[in-house]
Amino acid sequence: MKLLDIKETSKKIIRKECVIEIFGLGYVGFPLSVKLAKAGFRVFGVETGPDKLRRLEEDLLIGNERNLKSDFKNVRKKENLIFSNSSTPHSKPKIGIICVPTPIPKKNMKSDHYVILAVKDFLSSSKPGDIIIIESSLEVGTTELVEELIKKKGFHLGINFGLSYCPERIDPKNKKWDLHNISRVIYTSDNNTFSAIKKIYNHINKGNLFRIKEPKTVEVIKSFENAFRLVNISLVNELAVLCDKLKINISDVIDGASTKPFGFMPFYFGAGAGGHCIPKDPIFLLNSSKKFNFDFKTIQSAVKTNYFIPKYISNTIDGIIKKNNFKKSVIICGMSYKMNMPDMRDSPGFKIAKEFSEKGYDVMIHDPFIQKNLLSKYFYENEMEEFKLSILSKLKKENVSGTGCLVIVQHHTKSINEIQRVYKKSYVPFIYDCQGKLKKHYKKSCLLKGLGSLG
Ligand SMILES: NC(=O)c1ccc[n+]([C@@H]2O[C@H](COP(=O)([O-])OP(=O)(O)OC[C@H]3O[C@@H](n4cnc5c(N)ncnc54)[C@H](O)[C@@H]3O)[C@@H](O)[C@H]2O)c1
């Protein structure tokens, strides 16, 4: 086997005489695998979750994956997308793209845990001429750590091995900004690797890459982008709390401020930011600043507010329930962190459910996107294993009557009709809408309240 350098790899990428291994077939890795396989690359999807791997090998798609059903079918038929649970050696140059989770660091789990495992797996079958691209969000310093691992294996960055950090910026369900038109910031170990990688991203986002010299700068950019969102979401949610106290409507404040043609960008209130990015990546920045004896107070405060809002909501509802002598039972409606999405990671719905369980309420949860097999994972993440919650599949009269309050945390299009029926027919005495989307009907006997003095 002839051992390649990065320049030769670059030429082979143009002719698609290379293999792409994508580690982690989740929200980021799955669409990327399908896209690159559709572009004609031979893609190996490496997935360590045994259930997911089995399901994909059997061509069974769920949730958002179904949007790519026809492309998926075609690339599987052409054998351009193959699955496995670990990296495999190939004679052709290999490009490893790392899309594994980077969790909030805890005592027994560092944020880079899965990234390092995936990198080591790739390196175990690597040869000169191969390249690693990391797309996962990283804590500051992780790319340099990966550089060390590559060097320890005897490879020479920029000569016979390449490394890049190109964080994913995808916003699931965003119809305007998608994988193909979102620009990227990118660090690459050297010019040859940049030129090689650009040939791959030509098929992802038309090669719209903004190259940055320092890996740390790219790591900070990724976290800062999400810190910007968290700070603004927390700002508007704290404003909602103030509006409650002032008894003024938050929507009037946001709409009014939005008439300013410059210098203001509206953010919308709700029960708090969730998902695998916005509440988490700013914590990476906090941790990194702590290492340099610096407290990033704006982010610290935004993170605190994001924890506080679910408590504030449950306390407000509890107060109204007690005052009106309603039953101590709630239905939490909308467990995903985002509208029309099945992703329930770090979602405020679970935090509110936990608050009510701790207050001794009967708690039911409802969401048309609930995947029962994932619930234990969400309960574990939210330290709720010991709580008893029932799952309501439908918001029918017989299921909801007698409940103290319907708490709408997330509105899904699929639930609109059922929620409106509960309100119109006053099946429950009280509805609390965290996002203020349900329109007040003055003739209804059902009490409608919401965050930010709505209702
Ligand atoms: N979800 C988003 O919208 C989004 C957006 C931008 C960036 N990101 C970042 O991208 C990364 C991936 O996020 P995601 O939402 O796709 O995660 P995910 O949990 O949906 O998918 C990750 C997959 O990786 C698998 N995995 C774990 N360790 C592995 C290993 N060593 N080898 C192979 N597979 C492994 C898991 O089983 C899982 O299926 C994270 O760092 C996240 O912060 C996510």
Structure description:
- The chain is α/β, with parallel strands linked by helices.
- It folds into two domains: 6-213, NAD(P)-binding Rossmann-like Domain (Rossmann fold, 3-Layer(aba) Sandwich); 299-450, Rossmann fold (3-Layer(aba) Sandwich), CATH 3.40.50.720.
- Helices cover 41% and strands 14% of the residues.
- It has helices at 6-14, 29-38, 50-57, 69-77, 113-124, 142-152, 191-205, 215-246, 250-257, 281-291, 297-324, 348-358, 372-381, 397-400, 416-424; strands at residues 19-23, 42-46, 81-84, 94-98, 130-134, 161-165, 184-188, 209-211, 329-333, 362-366, 389-391, 405-408, 430-433, 447-450.
- The strands form two sheets. An eight-stranded mixed sheet has the order 3-2-1-4-5-6-7-8, with helices on both faces. Strands 11-10-9-12-13-14 form a six-stranded parallel sheet, covered by helices on one side.
- The longest helix is centred in the middle third of the chain and has 32 residues, at 215-246.
- The structure holds nicotinamide-adenine-dinucleotide.
- The site of nicotinamide-adenine-dinucleotide (NAD) has 28 residues, from helix 5.
- Residues 23-29, 46-49, 52, 99-102, 114, 117-118, 121, 136-137, 168-170, 172, 276-277 line the site of nicotinamide-adenine-dinucleotide (NAD).
